């Protein structure tokens, strides 16, 4: 891991430079002074998505979901639990495919929930279907190890 990493604030979207060794120390945003890691997934719209995926130096996991989707709603607590276990090494985002249909089309989301893993601004892994927290954490750890 690099000496310092760029981390996008989940609150104000400012890009922060954080020493890699300081990630576990609950760093705060230099612009808004809020925590850079909340142990919860961050809901992002189309307007915020690209910055979070492209500018975070840590892997970014994205849950493409919709409010009408039963499996999506069932998986939401497990996804939140996974965020608590994976941060600060990984950022978790949620994209509502109904509100951000352009993102669903751009990434060819055909079924939901679909979990996509991005690193360095590009998609490196994808998994369709609901997962429990343990399976999700294991999938992310395996995919980031393989990339």
Any descriptors?
alpha/beta, two-stranded antiparallel sheet, 147 residues, globular
Sum this structure up briefly.
Keywords: Disulfide bond, Electron transport, Metal-binding, Redox-active center, Transport. This protein is α/β, with parallel strands linked by helices.
Structure description:
The chain is α/β, with parallel strands linked by helices and 147 residues long. It has a single domain, classed as Glutaredoxin (3-Layer(aba) Sandwich), CATH 3.40.30. Helix content is 32%, strand content 25%. It has four helices and seven strands; from the N terminus they run E-E-E-H-E-H-E-H-E-E-H. It has helices at 46-55, 70-86, 101-106, 133-146, and strands spanning 4-8, 15-19, 42-43, 60-65, 91-96, 114-119, 122-128. The chain has a five-stranded mixed β-sheet with strand order 3-5-4-6-7, with helices on both faces. It has a two-stranded antiparallel sheet with strand order 1-2. Helix 2 crosses helix 4. It is globular and about 40 Å long. The two termini are 13 Å apart. Keywords: Disulfide bond, Electron transport, Metal-binding, Redox-active center, Transport. This is Thioredoxin.
- Mean of all residue-level pLDDT scores: 96
End-to-end Cα distance: 13 Å
What proportion of the residues is helical, as a percent range?
25-40%
Shape annotation: globular
Lateral arrangement of strands in the main beta sheet: 3-5-4-6-7
Number of domains: 1
Which assembly state applies to the chains in this document? single chain
């Amino acid at each position: 891991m690099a000496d310092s990493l760029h981390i996008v604030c989940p609150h104000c979207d400012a890009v922060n430079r954080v020493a890699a060794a300081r990630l576990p120390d609950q760093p705060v945003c230099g612009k808004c002074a809020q925590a850079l890691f909340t142990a919860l997934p961050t809901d992002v719209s189309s307007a915020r998505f690209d910055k979070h995926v492209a500018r975070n130096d840590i892997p970014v996991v994205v849950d493409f979901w919709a409010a009408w989707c039963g499996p999506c709603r069932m998986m939401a607590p497990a996804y939140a639990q996974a965020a608590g276990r994976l941060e600060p090494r990984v950022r978790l985002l949620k994209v509502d495919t109904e509100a951000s249909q352009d993102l669903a089309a751009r990434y060819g989301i055909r079924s939901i929930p679909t979990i996509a893993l991005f690193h360095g601004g590009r998609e490196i892994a994808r998994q369709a279907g609901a997962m429990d927290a343990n399976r999700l954490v294991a999938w992310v750890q395996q995919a980031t190890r393989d990339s």
